[in-house]
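Let us practice reading a record.
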Amino acid sequence: MNDYSLEHVLSFTGIGETAPEAIGAVPEGIRVNFYNAGGTVSGPRIRGKVRPVGGDWLTVRKDGVALVDVRVTFETDDGALILVTYGGTIDFGPSAYEGFARGEIPAVARIRTAPRFSTAHPDYAWLNRLHCIGVGEYRASTRTASYDVYAVR
């Protein structure tokens, strides 16, 4: 067995701009777009905001598992820009596909992701080297997604 540890890198919250945009049923599943209106970022070595750009281009499969496809930008308090991309899954349950087809979004959902960071700013170049996991939750009532991100060491 290989040794590893998890180190907390940051926590962030993203706020949805409006109600999700339903593209509808396509061959891969039901496509639903969630656009970002901003948020906050904090951690031991980083503090800032989620800029009001980007979003999640979600695909809900027939088995109720959604595939996450997110791109957002963090802006640190000292002005650095950090592109954040991640894929992952949300298990909405076996009846979620039919619910999304009717325009129903579950009230709360657990999210599991693998975030990647990309920045040119020398003070945050350490983020470019990380392999991370994200553990999060989406709340439909407030259109917020909150995450804790850990580096795998």
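A brief commentary: The chain has a mean pLDDT of 95.
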